[in-house]
Amino acid sequence: MAAPKKGRRQSAPGKPGRSLVFILIALVALTGGMFLSGHTTPRLGIDLAGGTSITLEAKNEPGQKNAINPANMNTAVDIINNRVNGLGVSEAEVQTQGDKNIIVNIPKGSNEKQAREQVGTTAQLYFRPVITQAPGQPTPEPSTSPSSGTDKEKDKDKATDKATDKATDKAGSPSSTPTSQGRAVSEALKADPTPSASDKAKDKGGKKDETPKPDPATAKLQEQFTKLDCTDKKARAEAGRGIKPSDPTIACGKSPDGKTWDKFILAPAELNGKDVDDAKAAIKQETGAWVVNMEFTKGGAKKFSNVTSKLMKQQSPQNQFAIVLDGEVASAPSVSVVLSTNAEISGNFNQESAKDLANILSYGALPLTFHEQSVTTVSPALGGEQLKAGLIAGAIGLALVIIYLVAYYRGLSLIAIASLLVSAALTYTIMTLLGPTIKFALNLPAVCGAIVAIGITADSFIVFFERVRDEIREGRTLRPAVERGWPRARRTILVSDFVSFLAAAVLFVVTVGKVQGFAFTLGLTTLLDVVVVFFFTKPLMTLMARKKFFASGHKWSGLDPERLGAKPPLRRSRRTAPPAGPVDPKEA
Amino acid sequence: MSKLGNLGARLYRGEVGYDFVGKRKIWYGISILITITAIVGLAVRGLNMGIEFEGGAVFNTPKTSVSVSQAEESAEKASGHDAIVQKLGDDKLRIQIAGVDIKKSDQIKKSLAEDLDVKAGDIDADLVGPSWGDQIANKAWQGLAIFMVLVVIYLAIAFEWRMALAALIALIHDITITVGVYALVGFEVTPGTVIGLLTILGYSLYDTVVVFDSLKEQSKDITKQTRYTYSELANRSINGTLVRSINTTVVALLPVAGLLFIGGGALGAGMLNDISLSLFVGLAAGAYSSIFIATPLVADFKEREPQMKALKKRVLAKRAAAAAKGESAEAPSSYADEEPEDDAATGDAAPAVVGPRSQPASRNRGRGRPSGKRR
Q1: DSSP string, A534-575
Q2: Same structural domain for residues A433 and A540?
Q3: Which of A354, A432, B233, B371 has the highest count of CB atoms within 10 angstroms of its CB?
């Protein structure tokens, strides 16, 4: 019957060798990359590897008594989640505990310090007009003990008032040469530290023009400003701590060169983080420089255009507003035109600093202040014992699959198993490499996703094999059967994999945390399935079809035409079913 | 021994086959029954939500020498709920218990203190909000909705809207059954469960799509022939892909079963169990629905089309004529090697499946062209 006709017409099988070499190279490259990068195992999620658990406690800020409510807590959870999960595959868990605690679990192997900074940084973001700016060293008198911290609490009350009175109606002042070149906010931080900071400070001030104030407060602020030593870390941290957003304050910030510090006296906050809708780092086409684009919410845009219209008329440094993150000036762009919804911050950014600032702007809007209450190391939620049992169970399941495939597909199962192995190797190496690059962490759901993927991957082979066998049943010899079965199997595989991938992609985009990591795994394995089937299974099958063992329909090849019940190629009048007769018992 | 291979061949040729489509009323009935049971179960018993959804209590103990598993045992004993115990630095323990309120939490604290041999005052008890699980669940639902919309659009383009609709119904059916099983049996719903459920989405559809793909191919030139009605072709598609469906389902279920029965079963509750359980139920439901629900539904929808009605009429008329002539309906086929068992196998259910015609109409297209060029 459709037996071995060697040297039959070549049915355009393409160049199977090439694809196989391609896959081989890819595998070697990935494995090599894996060893080169020094990561030979995937990063594990907190449920498998344990990690660090940080407990944050919301603090009541002066002036915002009822800020700690479920709504704000949930917003905070969202924001922290965004910060620590970045790409969404690092598997950190963020949840509330009690009414005012948030627990953040970070898997072992992440950059814990950085994570703590991101989480623990209770990022409160404000936009404050600049009153005075000076280089960070204690200006005139070096004496200053950077003690600061002390009596802010009191100061601020007074401080507020003063600031206000200063406000010598900027409105009147003639605009200081807006150098606007169509650009939104131009030249961030220009270090143009006005000398005699003191004097200036007085002239300007907040926008509210009101009641005249007692000088003492201003003086005090001024005095603190003078003493402030921004090069001292402690002083920096304490500068302006505990000051209400509605009060003027002092603060430090990196100067544009990123090495030295500048210090500022800042007016009351005009906008806060909640007014920022989104921020992104981008490269500006014309100049090729990194900039940060901000988008404000509706309310924010209104306020922002108010501020900018006022600021643009000021002279340096009062034409700047400072973006203050947790008391530190992240950036102090000057304003040259009135802006509302969108704004661009340019300056001395590189990619990283631009992204950092964008992150701060978009995720920095924590509605509450948090304090790190405790940081502990936790064991994996799933004991080692259980993980081991899970892996053993997975292995047993896999063994069963292999036994089943061998029993049913005989020789063909070799191809299936080889493909599964290639697929597994690709998945493993890629997951491992994604650990350091996008912080991908393998957690239990991801492991389960990978195990389920065995089914999806195997399904592609099964579809293909069944197609080929169908062709053989129609009386074709193996080689044409492979070539004819493939296009149809290919379509089925693509259509169904697309559905699977769609599910994964939607979940990845929409969901958070664990589900996202899982969706990522599923999408990845689906893609790899397509790659493996196209570049490995099919070419291998083409090659195998040339081997006598398969082509002749050896009874262990899984392609024995008789057992498949093929019809004789030409004569269709009688079924050949029994001729081969009793010989071979089982076809799976 | 196993005649499975042969069976595959005969299924493929349509010599044998089960009349899935013809008996669809039975399957619809069964599915409706299951669905109603699921809904009733859900309404009456509700779902047993885990700590991530319900909130619950978290106890932080001081340093203790008690092991994690011992602590787990005593926590479960004290609360009657599943407990998750983790070791923190310096031998402290964190114990999480779902669905516990303040009153109960004090009680548990006391009994924990006894069991762990520490002072009750030293155990911190905190009630955990359900925000995390809620967030996951909400977004999962959102994802589900978006996915359904997209997939229906995609299937409507790749196939046709009737198939898209049928696939959607089958999908909802799977989810309902899975959720129903959870309600009835009282398994705890955790994020793991949600994840498992979401996997089913893709997988259940995957299965359905394979059958639809074959159906689409077979019915390409359906109006040009008078041998089969649409339902009959649909049935052939199911039977033709039956071996594949069985194989795929077995291959998918084996590892999951391994996780469920060996991994989870031996070690009690855990996320492993949660995920594999919902996967197991969902995969089984998905395999069932693609065969018994999705395809018969397509046939039902299709046969409402005037074209298909006309075809059916023609086919039946032709058969009647042939029967009158005392000939097999399949006579025109040059290879009319009827096998008696075919009739036996399919019973009297439908003449549909009887035909041993070796190929559907479309199969012949492309014959003689160089292989591999044919789509």
Answers
A1: IIIIHHHHHHHTTSHHHHTT-TTTT--HHHHTPPPSS--SS-
A2: yes
A3: B233
Instruction: Show residues of chain A in contact with B132, CB under 8 Å.
Output: 77, 93-96, 513
Q: Is A97 on the interface with B (CB under 8 A)?
A: yes
CB < 8 Å to A405, chain B? 251
Give the Cβ contact number of residue B131 at 10 Å.
Answer: 21
Taking phi over 0 as left and psi of -120 to 50 as alpha, with beta for the rest, A169 belongs to left
Read off the pLDDT of residues B276-287 as tens digits, 9 standing for 90 and up. 788 888 888 888
Q: What is the DSSP letter of B129?
A: P
Which of A85, A95, A400 is most worth mutating to test chain B (most B CB atoms within 10 A of its CB)?
A: A95
Interface of A with B in 547-576 (CB under 8 A): 563-567, 572-575
Instruction: Tell whether A515 lies on the interface with B, counting CB pairs under 8 A.
Output: yes
Q: Which residues of chain B have a CB within 8 Å of the CB of A496?
A: 205-206, 209-210, 213
Which residues does chain B have within 8 Å of residue A538's beta carbon, measured at their own beta carbons? Answer: none
Most confident of A377-386, B27-36, B76-85, B225-234: B27-36
Instruction: Return left, alpha or beta for A12; rule: phi > 0 is left, psi -120 to 50 is alpha, else beta.
Output: left
- Residue A502 is assigned to a structural domain of this protein: yes
Locate the DSSP E strands across chain B: 48-49, 56-60, 83-87, 93-98, 124-128, 188-189
Neighbouring C-alpha atoms within 13 Å toward the C-beta of B65: 1
Contact with chain B for residue A445, Cβ under 8 A: yes
Shared-domain flag, residues A386 and A493: yes
Mutate to test the interface with A, among B199, B201, B277 (most CBs of A within 10 A): B199
A176 and A319 Cβ atoms separated by less than 8 Å: yes
Beta strand A249-254 with A328-331 is parallel
Q: Which residue has the tokens 């024995």?
A: A560
Q: Which residues of B touch A390 (CB under 8 A)?
A: 259, 263, 272
Q: Check which CATH number belongs to the domain holding A362 and give it.
A: 3.30.1360.200
Cβ–Cβ pairs < 8 A, chains A and B: 322
Q: How far apart are CA B177 and CA B42, in angstroms?
A: 10
Is residue A489 included in any domain, yes or no? yes
Segments making up each domain of chain B, as ranges = 16-47+132-309, 56-128
B247/A397 Cβ within 8 A: no
* Residue A115 to residue B370: CA distance in whole angstroms: 61
Give the residue from A570, A480, A585, A413 showing the smallest Cα distance to B6.
A585
Which residue segment(s) compose the domain that A76 sits in? 51-123+371-377
Q: What is the mean pLDDT of each run of 10 residues along chain A (588 residues)?
A: 40 67 87 82 75 77 64 75 65 73 74 63 69 67 41 41 40 37 37 39 41 58 76 67 71 71 80 75 78 80 80 75 73 72 72 71 66 71 65 78 84 86 88 79 74 77 84 81 87 86 84 73 88 89 81 69 60 44 41
CATH value at residue A425: 1.20.1640.10
How high is the pLDDT of residue B309?
80
Q: What is the mean pLDDT of chain B?
A: 73
**B73 burial type by CB count under 10 A (0-12 exposed, 13-18 middle, 19+ buried):** middle
* Inter-chain residue contact A456 with B252, CB threshold 8 Å: yes
**CA proximity to A303, closest of A244, A262, A245, A253:** A245
A172 falls within a domain: no
pLDDT at B117: 75
Q: What is the pTM of this model?
A: 0.62
B56-128 topology per CATH? Alpha-Beta Plaits (3.30.70)
Is the Cβ of A454 closer than 8 Å to some Cβ of chain B? yes
CATH no. for B16-47+132-309: 1.20.1640.10
Q: Residue B33: count other Cβ atoms within 10 Å of its Cβ.
A: 10
